[in-house]
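Researcher: Please predict.
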Amino acid sequence: NLTNLIQLDFFMNEIKLIEKDSMPESKINKLEILNLEHNKFEFIKEFHFAGMFRLRELNLSHNQISSIEPN
């Protein structure tokens, strides 16, 4: 059960893409810290962070992000 999850760390996992339904809003709505540092993201879509109303720290450093795209 992830409903009380407040911190999620994906540091150095070679992630390239987050699928739209991979982090359901009902499971991550208490998330405060998300670390996606040192992965392989090339773009970010708005839906990636939908429902993360309490998110106060987001680390996207050391990726290859060239654009932030709408849904």
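Model: The helical segments are 25-28.
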